[in-house]
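Internal ticket #5521
Category: modeling
Description: The requester needs a full-assembly model to guide mutagenesis choices. All entity lines are attached below as received. Residue total reported by intake: 254.
Assigned to: D.W.
Attached entities:
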Amino acid sequence: MQILWDVKVVIKLEDRKPLFRVRVLESSLIVEESRRFVESDRHGATVLFHGVTRDHTDSRNVLFLEYEAYLPMAEKKLYEVAKEMCNKWDVRVSIDHRLGRVDVGEASLIVAVGSPHRKEAFEAASYSVDRIKHTVPIWKKEYFEGGEIWIGDAEGFRPLENPID
Amino acid sequence: MLNVRVLYFATYREQAGIGCETINIEGDNDSVTLGGLVNMVCDIHPRILASPERIVGAVNEEYREHSHVLKEGDTVALIPPVSGGSQFK
């Protein structure tokens, strides 16, 4: 079990206003923090993805999840995802990923996207979750009634392939 | 001679029973590739069940092909599959 000593916040500045923020942290994630970070008078829409631990996977009863990361690389890859989003769409982005134990109903990932128009906000948010799940070295272990298992998509994990446009 | 640091995570860490080690490769002057190192690692740690050719590797925090040539002091991480999944799940 990794112990985090160093929580990193990466902020990219453009026109003196932060464009995106990515964080990896071990404490509870707070949606309002994410929403507030991306808000702007320019924006007509904020889309929030709130990824939480579900109480089941197929027929298994899930007790909790535990997240582990290759920390410096995970931060780097989250930074790249946020940067890709800001390059493709006119958005402001906040990505928070939690490590350690995440109980049923608690959030492991919050992505907030603010944009002048909802189409871009929805597209960017959707893109971000898929991209994170395909490129960021963070793994989850599922503890269920009767056992535990690392979750991973061996067939689909091909991080060297280019992003889908 | 080549010294590389190898990091293990998630399933590989549990199977190998180790989080981090330094591997020292002595021998002929042929360069060592990421794929070559992964093969060696799977020999050293037979409890890692994944086929070496399918193991994704990162060198100095960047994903690399197995043909990537390693340099002295590189940090290699064996990256088990992340959750992936389709966007319609």
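Resolution: model delivered.
Comment from assignee: Chain B has two helices and five strands.
Ticket closed.
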